[in-house]
Specification:
Elements (H helix, E strand, L loop, with lengths): L1 H19 L6 H4 L6 E8 L10 E2 L3 H9 L5 E4 L4 E5 L4 E9 L4 E8 L6 H10 L3 E5 L2 E5 L5 E7 L5
Antiparallel strand pairs: 1-2, 1-3, 1-9, 3-4, 4-5, 5-6, 7-8, 8-9
């Protein structure tokens, strides 16, 4: 009987430890792991936690342009709270912070020039981000109402 109680205790302890490890809230894994992130698209969603309910907001030509330029439309977060990035015709830098408890996100950017066209969309969606979801393979930065997001994959990842 003692053995069964011990086994039950170990099973519950193991299950609890797995349940308490939430990679979505691991800020260092998500943002400050040294990866360079590439823009993969932008989406509208009625439910920011439902990965199956989103609608692309970029047309096919924009997606092709983004995907054909792996060295552009990128962002890199550093563990010291700084961020750098590049669009097609501009660069930016600034600071970032995130809160793992409520998944809030703050970013302050400065660009080397005023972006236009697809660059402006890229820049504005990052600047307007106030919440995040993600892990080491995907970042979604959501606007303040959580109904729109810009999505990133590690550079070189084929989505």
């Amino acid at each position: 009987m003692k053995m069964k109680i011990y086994q039950l205790f170990l099973t519950l302890l193991f299950a609890f430890s797995l349940g308490s490890c939430n990679k979505e809230d691991d800020i260092m894994e998500i943002f400050a792991n040294g990866q360079t992130w590439h823009w993969s698209g932008s989406y509208d969603t009625p439910n920011w936690k439902d990965n199956n309910k989103s609608t692309p907001t970029l047309d096919r030509a924009a997606i092709q342009e983004i995907n054909s330029k792996q060295e552009m439309y990128i962002i890199q977060f550093s563990n010291d709270g700084t961020v750098t990035g590049r669009g097609s015709d501009f660069t930016f830098n600034g600071t970032w912070s995130a809160n793992g408890k409520d998944q809030s996100f703050h970013i302050n950017l400065r660009s080397n020039k005023t972006p236009s066209g697809l660059d402006a969309t890229f820049y504005q969606e990052i600047v307007n981000a106030q919440f995040y979801r993600g892990d080491s393979q995907l970042i979604r930065l959501f606007n303040g109402t959580k109904n729109h997001y810009i999505q990133f994959y590690p550079i070189g990842f084929n989505n």
